[in-house]
Design brief:
The complex is a heterodimer of chains A (321) and B (527). Chain A is α/β, with parallel strands linked by helices. Chain A is 46% helix and 12% strand. In chain A, strand 7, helix 7 and strand 8 form a beta-alpha-beta unit. The chains are: A alpha/beta (321), B alpha/beta (527). Chain B: Heterodimer of a catalytic subunit QTRT1 and an accessory subunit QTRT2.
């Protein structure tokens, strides 16, 4: 609870983490726990499946908690609907998110130490998105998140909403695309103008035995790796690849959590290396070349490239060969 | 050169010839006597060259004009590693095992413990997190329970299990059974023993056992043995059978060992069986001693059902008979008070599984072992939690007994995760448990009293966990089932346990075992 964390010198103190922390507002749980949630103008009411207790999460409450946690970046409480939902609910949620943004800004007791980000909603409807963007960029926030995507919608719609958002968002503030984490998506969305991303994918998939590599992923649980004495990726410098073989990870996976740690470390190294390479290539003015190499390595040949990616990249003048 | 050195160090005035019998074992019944001895000459020969030594012995006798006539020839087993005992104080042995390992370059402090692993990994820890811990012991403990199912893979790998598990430089000791997993009895036969792995029961014949050792290439391994836990009061017949079988297995292992090129730098440990019957124990000791083993394993003391006094007396009787110059390991003893009792009775090496078992229960080791410092000033901690470890044991047992291999494959990781944190049923148990059986020497971090306790796990502990994190944080990690809980607890518990063993060594060296024992017993009774 927030009172406990305050006593511990905030979340940084409680975890003993000296770097930056970003906290989400609880909005996503409106989608992931939709059966347990009831949304009104006031806020969202969650009932606990364990003891039936109810929590009312209002914009004010969410900001109060995030203030107590002391995170460096906080997210507004937004009215989130699944990207597969259509109809008037989407519009209602978009307008409400704007109103809730204002309530969040007003409730923030720490505007000097903590950075509040707005979250653009509007589902997959271009008009609604535009309306949301126009309104939210009028508010004085530290950065903008693109929300309501990465929830199972068609990639064709997904990238169009991303591009639309980055077109309207101010250049001098960070653009945070929430929930995006597959390697291809990261590369394309950087090209479309996004700066920050978050995703459970690399660590969650690691815990299920899946190791990320430049050409896809290895399901280390599978029998084919039982006698594979190569590291996960021969070109990877992470501690796991320097010491352990696929065969050992396969053997260990069934028996000890250490396997999960080894693969998690590798997957995080993979993601960080990817982003580092992206930054480096941008700095050198070689990003289109990087994209080309990345896609080739991941998919093999142009015929295999996902259409949505090819299309999306062409809108920013990256033609894939 | 080596032989001469040994001869100078241990002059012997008698010796006997023990030529190997046809089946490769040593019989000690043959004596040869040469007429008109002029003086004594002693010949030590390495056991890896039994046939050569036998041949040499014969040659010596046949040379008539040798100025020094051997009266008797000693055919002793000289193992590669050496035990240097600095002192024996009140039954406690203090010293070093040197020239250990394939290169003969490592040493092991005695008394000491092994580094416990499961499938070759210290539970929850990667190589990097392990390196955060001070005082990590040299010998790495592998168990056939957790690696036997990967035998084929290791055969194809060819480079030995040390490299496979990411510890190419470490000394490896391979035992049969995993001390932290249940070992159901009733499955061993005259020709096979069974171990219980992740996929269920694995039946091992002698040749399969030796094939595994040759694929794994450990530095030490225990001989195949019938060490099934026998209930107290098991029939004499059954106990005798376990001793006989074990000796038979030992002889079989030795024969293959001696013919094996890959195992030539490995040591085999003889296993002392005998249940709770003194005569059988002594018989096992005397017979095993005749074989050229590198050390001795005291087996069968794992279970909790042998009452303390008879157990300790048996251990003392066994070690009393064993030769002083070879290391004595014991399986299944890990609690601090029991460790001290065994050290006092001449045991050298212990398995290091106790920190792991406590970690799985969400417990942190907090007992004091600095007998030099005044132990007072520690706040009292009340522990209200019930026997959660019993719940986990039952889960494990039923899982092993009922799951097929496919089911284990599909579900094992989930049950492992349940064990490493705490499951929902344990959270709800917490509220209702009062005054159940507590575990001395530890605190239960799942207990709600730690929710807002911002102190480190243990006040003056220098481990990574205590320097960086609090009880409140561990409580949070445990109640939310986070993997990090296991990592941090394991780091602390290992660090603490290895510190305890250093303290034992200091106490033996300084003749302060009495103080250390008092300190430990006081804490055992406190809770």
């Amino acid at each position: 609870g927030p009172e406990l964390i305050s006593k511990a010198n905030g979340l940084h103190g409680f975890m003993n983490w000296k770097r930056a922390l970003l906290t989400d507002s609880g909005g996503f749980q409106m989608v992931s726990l939709v059966e347990l949630a009831e949304v009104t103008e006031q806020g969202v009411r969650f009932s606990s499946p364990y003891d039936g207790k109810e929590i009312l999460l209002t914009p004010e409450k969410s900001i109060e908690i995030q203030n107590a946690l002391g995170s460096d970046i906080m997210m507004q409480l937004d009215d989130v609907v699944s990207s597969t939902v259509s109809g008037p609910r989407v519009e209602e949620a978009m307008y409400r998110s704007i109103r809730w943004l204002d309530r969040c800004i007003a409730a923030n007791k720490n505007p000097e130490q903590q950075n509040l980000f707005a979250i653009i909603q509007g589902g997959l409807d271009a008009e609604l998105r535009k309306k949301c963007l126009t309104e939210m960029i009028k508010r004085d926030v530290s950065g903008f998140a693109i929300g309501g995507l990465s929830g199972g919608e068609e990639k064709d719609n997904f990238w169009r909403m991303v591009t639309l958002s980055t077109e309207y968002l101010p250049r001098e503030k960070p653009r945070y695309l929430m929930g995006v984490g597959y390697a291809t998506d990261l590369v394309v969305c950087v090209a479309l103008g996004c700066d920050m991303f978050d995703c459970v994918f690399p660590t969650r998939t690691a815990r299920f035995g899946s190791a990320l590599v430049p050409w896809g992923s290895l399901q280390l649980k599978n029998r084919q790796y039982a006698k594979d004495f190569k590291p996960i990726d021969e070109d990877c410098d992470c501690p796991t690849c320097k010491r352990y073989t696929r065969a050992y990870l396969h053997a260990l996976f069934r028996n000890d959590t250490a396997a999960l740690h080894h693969i998690t470390i590798h997957n995080i190294a993979y993601q960080l290396n990817l982003m580092c390479s992206i930054r480096e290539s941008i700095r050198q003015g070689q990003f289109p070349v990087f994209i080309q190499q990345f896609m080739k390595r991941m998919y093999g040949s142009k015929e295999q490239y996902p259409c949505w990616a090819v299309e999306a990249l062409s809108t920013v003048n990256v033609q894939l060969e | 050169m080596r032989m001469l050195e040994l001869w100078k160090r241990a002059p012997i005035t008698w010796s006997h010839v023990a030529p190997p019998l046809e089946n490769g074992t040593f019989g000690c019944s043959e004596w040869r006597h040469v007429e008109k001895p002029q003086c004594y000459c002693v010949l030590f020969v390495g056991y890896t060259n039994i046939w050569l030594s036998s041949f040499l012995a014969d040659c010596l006798y046949s040379v008539k004009d040798l100025p020094i006539r051997p009266s008797y020839v000693l055919l002793a087993s000289v193992t590669k590693m050496k035990l240097i005992l600095s002192s024996i104080v009140n039954g406690c042995r203090y010293g070093k095992l040197i020239e250990v390992g394939r290169n003969g370059s490592k040493s092991v402090d005695i008394p000491g413990c092994l580094l416990y692993t499961r499938t070759g990994s210290v539970p929850h820890l990667t190589h990097d997190t392990l390196s955060l811990i001070e005082g990590v012991p040299e010998p790495v403990h592998l168990t056939l329970s957790t690696v036997a199912e990967h035998h084929e893979v290791l055969e194809e790998y060819k480079e030995g299990i040390g490299k496979f598990i990411g510890m190419p430089e470490s000394i490896l000791y391979c035992s049969l059974h995993d001390p932290a997993s249940p070992c159901p009895s009733g499955y061993n036969t005259n020709k096979t023993v069974s171990v219980w792995g992740g996929g269920g029961r694995i039946e091992i014949t002698l040749s399969k056992f030796m094939a595994m050792q040759q694929a794994f290439k450990p530095d030490w391994y225990q001989s195949m043995a019938d060490g099934e836990p026998l209930p107290p009061g098991a029939s004499r017949k059954r106990v005798k059978k376990s001793v006989d079988r074990t000796l038979g297995f030992l002889d079989g292992c030795l024969k293959e060992h001696q013919n094996s090129e890959v195992l030539k730098n490995s040591e085999i440990l003889g296993v002392i069986e005998g249940g709770d019957i003194l005569e059988e124990r002594l018989r096992s000791v005397r017979e095993t001693m005749k074989r050229p083993v590198g050390g001795f394993l005291l087996d069968g003391f794992q279970a909790d059902d042998m009452p303390d006094d008879p157990k300790l007396n048996l251990i003392a009787s066994v070690t009393g008979e064993l030769p002083e110059d070879k290391p004595r390991l014991i399986h299944g003893i890990g609690k601090p008070d029991e460790v001290l009792e065994c050290v006092s009775r001449g045991v050298d090496l212990f398995e290091g599984f106790f920190p792991y078992v406590m970690t799985e229960q969400g417990r942190a080791l907090t007992f004091k072992f600095k007998y030099k410092v005044d132990p007072e000033g520690e706040a009292e901690q009340k522990d209200l939690v019930g026997p959660l470890h019993q719940v986990q044991d039952q889960q494990l047992i039923s899982a092993y007994n009922t799951m097929t291999i496919e089911q284990c494959e599909g579900n094992h990781i989930y049950s492992m995760l349940e064990q490493s944190g705490c499951g929902d049923n344990e959270i709800s148990n917490k509220a209702s448990d009062k005054g159940g059986k507590t575990v001395p020497f530890t605190i239960d971090l799942k207990s709600e009293q730690y929710r807002a306790d911002f102190r480190p796990l243990l006040e003056d502990c220098s481990c990574y966990c205590c320097k960086n994190h609090t009880r409140a944080y561990l409580y949070h990690l445990l109640t939310t089932n986070e993997l990090l809980a296991g990592v941090l607890l394991m780091i602390h518990n290992q660090h603490h346990y290895f510190g305890f063993f250093q303290s034992i060594r200091d106490a033996v060296r300084d003749d302060k075992m009495h103080q250390l024992k008092e300190l430990i017993i006081k804490q055992k009774l406190q809770q």
